[in-house]
Structure formats: C-alpha cells, structure tokens
Amino acid sequence: MTSRTHTPEDIQKITEPWSPVSIGVDVTEEGAHVVGIYALDNDTSQIFYSKFYPAPQRKPLTDEEIWVLTSEYNDYDQHGEYFEAVFIGKPTSEQIQKHCHVTEQGAVHILNGGGRVKYEDQWYNLRKEKAAHGIKGEA
Question: Which pLDDT score is estimated for 60?
Fold first, then answer.
C-alpha cells in the first residue's frame, strides 16, 4: 500500500481554484445529466446529486390548415392589422364568438373571411395560411 503526502504548497495549488462543491452538466440531444460532487479532501470526492433531465419532445408540425385571426381599428393612429389568435384547423362559430365577443351572425361573417361592415370601428379578418415546415433553406 502506498501513501501520498502533500506539502502545504501543493495543497494550496490543488484547492485554490476549486470550491468544495462542483456541479457538472452534460447536455446532449436526449437531455441533460447533472452531477453534484463534494470534495471530501484533496484525493477523494463524493457524488451527492445525480439526475437526468430528458429534453422535452417537440410535437411534430401539423399538416392541417392553420387559420390566423387579426383585427383592425378605425383609429387615426392605426398600424394595420393586429394579431389576435391562431387556430389549427378552421375555428368553429363558438370559438370565434368567445374570442371576438361577437354574436353568431358576427361569427359567421368572420368565418367567411371577415372584414369591415359599414362604419364599424373594429373588425376582424380570418385567413388560411400555409405552414412553413418542409422548406429547407429557401427564402
């Protein structure tokens, strides 16, 4: 059996830049592994924490239709259309009524594309948009 002896200068060189607790993190596509290590002395340490955190799984993009709801205001300082909501698949009359606070007749108008009716001060537009997935490096 062999033993190691350290002079005070050696010990100072070893311990000076290090804290008694070290945290290690290894990040991969699958997730992150976190390890906590406590230095007991200059030659030994003890793992006091080790846990794997899986990366959240991304939901695949949908091939369904995407509908975007915007609003416009008849104000002096209006800046065009304002984003209101996005729907996967065409929204129902009930969804439009709830989101826009309109009557069933107003919801039918919005579901048909929307737009300004007569002299109203606020109106909604509903458009079907194409999903952007599947495009590789194209501008």
Answer: 60
Question: Is 48 a domain residue?
Answer: yes
Phi, psi of 8 (to 5 degrees): -55, -30
Is 0.90 topped by the overall pTM?
no
The full DSSP string for 63-125 is -S-EEEEEEEE--TT--S-EEEEEEESPPPHHHHHHHHT--HHHHHHHHTTB---TT-SEEEE
Query: DSSP of 32-70, one letter per residue?
Result: EEEEEEEE-SSS-EEEEEEEEEEPPPPPPPP-S-EEEEE
- Domains in the chain, number: 2
Q: How far apart are CA 134 and CA 85, in angstroms?
A: 23
Residues 36 and 75 placed together within one structural domain of the fold: no
Could you report the per-residue pLDDT of 101-115, keeping only the tens digit for each?
888 998 998 998 888
Range of the domain at 77: 66-129
